[in-house]
Amino acid sequence: MLQDYNNILVPIDGSKNAELAFNKALEVAKRNKANLHLVHVVDERAFQNLSSFDAKMIEELTDSSKKTLEKYLKKAKDFGLSDTDYSIEYGSPKVVIAKDVVNKLNIDLVMMGATGLNSVERFLIGSVTSFVTRVAKCDVLIVKTNLENK
Questions:
Q1: Maximum CA pair distance of the chain?
Q2: What is the pLDDT of residues 26-66, one digit of tens each?
Q3: Nearest-angstrom CA–CA distance, 113 and 144
Q4: Measuring CA to CA, which residue among 14, 30, 116 is closest to residue 72?
Q5: Whole-prediction pTM value?
Q6: Residue 104: predicted pLDDT
Q7: Residue 91 φ/ψ, nearest 5 degrees
């Protein structure tokens, strides 16, 4: 039995793993004639303890994220996917991806890169990928390889 997906979500964080997931998601979205949603989550908690924090820092990060997402959006459109969009969200990446965006956009497949954290970092802050895999109410595909499966 083949599974048809209608709404595919790809979290974009600027990592090589996220790019691998995006490239595979292009193929899956095209094959399924699905909507492709890209999301970047700005983790505002990372700025809470900075004494020199101001709103300008988040604004600059948002502008940088928007430029990155626009490049991905252009690549998707050039690939022939007209039903592609993106959003920039704020909060805990784990929760925003696994619960908020999945529910809001009726996502039925999340395609994301494997964690880039080492074992100590995963222990201290936890893996977003691991959390999304456990909590999301839809299928989650963890991408570890390129289009040639290498």
A1: 55
A2: 999 999 999 999 999 988 776 665 555 566 777 888 999 99
A3: 6
A4: 14
A5: 0.88
A6: 97
A7: 140, -160
